[in-house]
Amino acid sequence: MTDPILKGPILKVQGLNKHFGGVVATDNLDFDVEPGEIHAVIGPNGAGKTTFVAQIAGMIKSDSGSIMFDGGEIAGLSAHARSRRGLARSFQITSIFKEFTVIENVAMSIQAHDGHSFRFWRRANTDPALMDPARALLDRVGLGARAEIVASNLAHGEQRQLEIAMALATGPKLLLLDEPTAGMGPEDSQSMAAFLRDIKGEYSMLLIEHDMDTVFALADRITVLVYGRAIATGTPEEIRGNDEVRAAYLGEEA
Fold first, then answer.
1. Are 67 and 54 in contact (CB under 8 A)?
2. What is the rounded distance in angstroms from the CA atom of residue 215 to the CA atom of residue 2?
3. How does pLDDT run across 215-236, given as a tens digit for each residue?
4. How far is the C-alpha of 199 from the C-alpha of 201, rounded, in Å?
5. Looking at the chain, which residues constitute the CATH 3.40.50.300 domain(s)?
6. Each residue of 119-155: pLDDT tens digit?
7. 85 and 79 in contact (C-beta within 8 Å)?
8. CA–CA distance, 225 with 13 (Å, rounded to integer)
9. SS3 string of 108-149?
10. Whose CA is closest to 180, among 34, 11, 38?
11. For 1-86+173-254, which CATH superfamily applies?
């Protein structure tokens, strides 16, 4: 959860760069997330949004730049080390253990974050120290009644809810949410937005999202990326009224 003692941004990125051959994915990017806020990143396809999140999470190594998280530099750390420090990422494509039950997925996330090997899972899946908090998290995301269902049998929207529960199971200080409503119908999208609104303030969030209704309903601030470059950062109202943003991306949606 958000640390109330922290002074300044929970995440501060400066001069971040990533090139893939001649393609510029992030272009001298500066960005920050304040404790407890939802900072959304939007932009057209190919703008570099997912690459940017992957750089912060440690999945992609940056060419240059600084990534300060919770008061310390993490640019040289592995993805696992960043997770242990309090970064949790959800993926654009759902990433769960489909052969396990819903509650086992969450319990394994708790176990992995605590540094225990999956070799001991057969014993751990009856451990109240894992299963009780896992059940509480499932109740929180609305999946309490589905705890014993094999994850592959969940509907797509429920799988996305499970992935969020798995992220929360690691006790994050910052949630990196990459398209949490991807592939959802209107009803499921509204449910996900309502849940994120419910935990707003408890967790700092960097939100990548294509659904503009969700973005403008949830975000405290929005950064617009075009070809890896931030062309604007501001409140939803400021972004709606920005002529450069309108021309580059929002168009009639503004």
1. no
2. 21
3. 999 999 999 999 999 999 999 9
4. 6
5. 1-86+173-254
6. 455 555 667 888 999 999 999 998 999 999 999 999 9
7. no
8. 14
9. HHHHHHCCCCHHHHHHHCCCHHHHHHHHHHHHHHCCHHHCCC
10. 38
11. P-loop containing nucleotide triphosphate hydrolases (3.40.50.300)
